Amino acid sequence: MTGAGAAGLRTGRVVVVGASLAGLRAAEALRDEGFTGDLTLIGEEPHAPYDRPPLSKAVLTGRLACDHIELPRIRDIGARWLLGTPATGLDVPGRRVELADGRQLAYDRLVIATGTRARRWPVEAGGGLAGVHVLRAREDAERLRGALAAGPRRVLVVGGGFTGGEVASACRELGLPVTVTQRSAAPLAGALGGVIGRAAADWYREAGVDLRLNTTVEALEGDSAGRLRRAVLSDGTAMPVEVAVIATGAVANTEWLAGSGLAADHRGVVSRGDCRAVADCGSTAEDIYVAGDVARWPHLLFPGQLLRLDHWDNALAQARTAAHNLTRDPGERRDHRPLPAFWSQQFGRYLKSVGVPAVADQVAVTQGALDQRRFVAAYGLKGRLVGVVAVDSPRVLDGYAALIEARAPFPPRLGATDGPDRLDPVDADFPGRDAAGVPQQDIHPPSAPAPAQTAHR
Amino acid sequence: MTPSTTTPATDLFAQVLRQDRRADPYPCYAQLRRDPVVRMDDGTWLVSGYREIRQLLHDPRSSADRRDPQNKAPQAARSLLMQDPPLHDQLRRVVTEEFVPRVMGMRDHLGDLVSGLLDAHISDRPGRLDVVADLAYPLPVTVICELLGVPREDEALFGSIARRLTRGLDPVDTQTEEELRELDQARNELIQYLEGLITERRAEPGSDLLSGLMFHQDPDDVMGPIQLRVTLGLLLIAGHETTVNLIANGTLALLRNPDALARLRADPDLATPLVEEVLRYDPPVQMSGRSALADIDLGGTTIPEGSRIRLLLAAGNRDATRFEDPDRFVPDRRDNAHLGFGGGIHYCIGATLARAEAQIALTALARRLRSPRLVADPPPYRENAILRGPEKLLVAFDGLAPDGR
């Protein structure tokens, strides 16, 4: 197949494994790029591709039903859809995908877009009890919606990241008492650091959330019917709960790649800047492309680590780049190097971020103030601007985005009229760094569920 | 250097401002865009590239306080258009909270107003219409006056003040002494008029926007008596002098592109992307201003702190690095993130209303006029270079049908 010239690149058999946002958009982009061959989409879930961000927001409060979240189709893709059929194996030399129903599907080129799933609570600690929820698929959201609508006496949210915050926010909107446990000293600390996290803690508390910091859940306990009844926390309290939502991050869906020879584990599939997969041995796997939440790849603006982004925008852009490169000669391929962006809504506030705050060592408030409703904070790494988060003031972000792209110095000299007289950079206080501020492992903004604004236009 | 030596940018911008270029400033913009960020001889910077303008609209280093020698108003007496955060944000919140709910659900009423205006000209014989005087001007004026609670009988008086004041937005060196005196007088008339209106409404509040602004429960307490008058003046002028050009420019584009006109007649849904294209192709507000709060590296050069900056929105809208085939009017253009309403924290508050007015007015013209054509092409233009549009837009037709809605 390879080396067949431009015509050959646009024919043949392409299999896309994963039929959510990245998979669908990759398929559409392939047709946009002139691919006329056989196209197959494999999806583990039985549903047509749908939009996930509303699941932790409008779906939980009942404002939006799950039958209204199907993703709009940009174009007709003329594809074969194999939905409800998870892929279970990959034979790279034989160019075949194995399916759960025993079928084998031959391909000439492959797109891996299997995404991530919510990390589950261990069964031995109560993970199998009725009333213990995760939030990733629409069934999860529908089940949780039902549980919240039944009016539980208290909801426990395990994890104060973006998903946890959005769930807790929805609970308060529904008037439900809610407890959030967070392993570190502030909510959102993994993504935004302790400084901004401590400001976020105030929003939680103002909204009436029982926020337990530096606290983990030791066990979830049920009654004889297997229904959740009690949670035992590391601070020694035992509280009665009927609903618990596990929001402790995401795990990449890569089990099906075990033994394939690709560099894949629970953190994702390693890929190149041009989206091609990397093999265990470090060589590039020809004809296999990776896009969306499952990809871990090097980004020129944030050197020294592999990025994995659970961002709506990123799935879209990476799918397009993968499709472009898949249909082009090597000389015409391009690198996927978007400026990461995501947003979240919680406790009546709108957070939007550009760049990657999670890689930073320092943070400075550049507009507004932390104790005000609106503010903007800039993140620096070794004297360079690498990320920005804006709370209730999204309209300035494009300006900052350009500064990040331009590798502007940190702290940035802005002269903003609503900024402090002098910027005061402080340690961004990310948990899990060693004394020198070096991350102990790969960085990826944990479980940011929210897409860019375009998701809801 | 001789006194007549000017840099191309200075010269090109002077041409943009000249009345004889008013009908088509776009070739000048195209030449200016070769240097998307450029300094003029007077030290003002011109920005004409799409991406560069967009960045400045969203940049915390750009201030809406124009540092404009023309503007003698004290800081507190400037409208939110020329205010920076945090005061800007507080003012905008008050205006948004009062304005937006009042324009929701207005489409049926707008349809009735458009019908009424065109019904006056129903004819099964050939005739003529001045789209500016007969539709594009009275529609938004009636709407903003109704919203604010300005009595209908005051519209004529107010309209004349607004017209005179709009000219004052243009660069000062293009105006004569007499025009500047006239401007001061118009300003005084406006202040007197608005204060009278405010006094009346304070005594007898209604459900209108003016009463809403006056009695807004505002934790920041920013809407004092002077700011109330200034905000009221801004809304009235914006309501008088911008949408008129959107509707007129849209009509002009339709009559110059008969295919688009035929498509709109057959498919009213086309009105939505079509109005966006008018906002890109021939925007009612051609330029905006900012100043630099810090040095800004942009387009390969540095705009020094303290500089005044002109953002040529209409030029950015024709930037070929952002819009495919930018000089073509494409009524269903995709991915049309134009600069017609500005952007960033000063994005047009009235955008939704202006869109609805233009969509409804243009659709009604397309459906009701039989064989419309321009009497003069180009039509005569008003003097204003910033809020730019035709003075008159005479359209000849074979018939004007009753409303078949």
From TrEMBL, chain A:
SUPFAM superfamilies: FAD/NAD(P)-binding domain (SSF51905), FAD/NAD-linked reductases, dimerisation (C-terminal) domain (SSF55424). Residues 411-457 are annotated as: Disordered. Residues 342-413 form the Reductase C-terminal domain. InterPro entries: FAD-oxidoreductase/Apoptosis (IPR050446), FAD/NAD-bd_sf (IPR036188), FAD/NAD-binding_dom (IPR023753), FAD/NAD-linked_Rdtase_dimer_sf (IPR016156), Reductase_C (IPR028202). Pfam families: Pyr_redox_2, Reductase_C. Keywords: FAD, Flavoprotein, Oxidoreductase. Residues 13-319 form the FAD/NAD(P)-binding domain. Its cofactor is FAD. This is Pyridine nucleotide-disulfide oxidoreductase. The lineage of its organism: Bacteria, Bacillati, Actinomycetota, Actinomycetes, Kitasatosporales. The gene is hcaD.
From TrEMBL, chain B:
CDD domains: CYP164-like. SUPFAM superfamilies: Cytochrome P450 (SSF48264). Keywords: Heme, Iron, Metal-binding, Monooxygenase, Oxidoreductase. The keyword Oxidoreductase applies. It holds the Pfam family p450. Transmembrane segments: none annotated. Gene3D superfamilies: Cytochrome P450. Belongs to the cytochrome P450 family. This is Cytochrome P450. It comes from Streptomyces kronopolitis. The lineage of its organism: Bacteria, Bacillati, Actinomycetota, Actinomycetes, Kitasatosporales.
